[in-house]
Amino acid sequence: MIGLRLFAVAALLQVSQLVAAEPIELVTLDYPPYIEQKEDRVSGVAVDLVRYVFAELEQPVTITVMPWAEALKSVESGGTDGIFTIFKNRQREQFADYSSQMLFMQNISLVSLKGRDISPRVAMFANSSQFTLCVVNKVSYGKAVDQRIAGGRFKEVIRRESASECARLINEQVADLWVNNEFGARSILVKEKLEEQLEILSPSIDATQSFIAFSKLRNHSELLKNIDQVLFEMKQDGRYNSLIYDYFERLREE
């Protein structure tokens, strides 16, 4: 009888270890320099941060890049565990539980052809109806920008599946403005060889926190608490800033 009990306990421990070893599945979008996919390799400063946090928790994780609308749908339906880097809004909070600790503060900027002499705040909040704006489908750009888009304030809003497509539409003069996070816009202009043709307008129009979030259908409340604790400790002891600094130093060397 004792032998059977010991066998049962051992079996339960093995099952627990297998469950613990199951990787958490995260989805994201191609969003340089935060997330970038080159062939089968996913990299980026947000990817480095997320992988570091999960390594601290000794929790395996997989990261899949897909169109943003598809990624959101996967989390909403419970088809995947979580998503990053994601802005908060009421619609998303209905199906996703967010971390308390932000991953990044992202400056949101407008991009135009060089020489257009466009004031970003006037273009966004005063004379929006004069401009055609390019955005990535289903991407949030913060409350203020999202409200302007949803309110039909622009002459036209062109929706594409990647920010690189928006950059090309600006260069082809199909769109007047493209809205994006500043770091990402700089990275795309370099990659698309459009630094001489396009410019990131100053000042930025908003600054928005981005997070990691998990499907409510997957019930990862305990994991979220642990992620928040690691992120908090990293910000307190300097590891958070060091990780970001080291990433951009490597970029400069490439």
Give the ordered list of helices and strands: HEEEHEHEHEEHEHEHEHEEHH
Rounded radius of gyration (Å): 21 Å
User: Quick one: overall form?
Assistant: globular
Number of beta-strand segments: 12
What does the main sheet amount to? Answer: 10 strands, mixed
Tell me the β content. 15-25%
Average residue pLDDT: 90
- The CA-CA distance between the termini, in Å, is 64 Å
Low-confidence stretches: 1-19
Which range best describes the helical content: under 10%, 10-25%, 25-40%, 40-55%, 55-70% or over 70%? 40-55%
Helix segment tally = 10
Quickly give the structural class.
Answer: alpha/beta
Structure description:
- The radius of gyration is 21 Å and the shape is globular.
- Mean pLDDT is 90; it is low at 1-19.
- It is α/β, with parallel strands linked by helices.
- Strands 1, 4, 5, 6, 7, 8, 9, 10, 11 and 12 form a ten-stranded mixed beta sheet that branches. The chain has a two-stranded antiparallel ribbon with strand order 2-3.
- It has helices spanning 2-21, 45-56, 68-76, 90-93, 120-125, 143-150, 163-171, 182-191, 221-237, 239-253; strands spanning 24-28, 36-38, 41-43, 61-65, 82-86, 96-98, 104-113, 132-136, 156-160, 177-181, 198-200, 206-215.
- Residues 23-250 form the Solute-binding protein family 3/N-terminal domain.
- It comes from Vibrio paucivorans.
- Keywords: Signal.
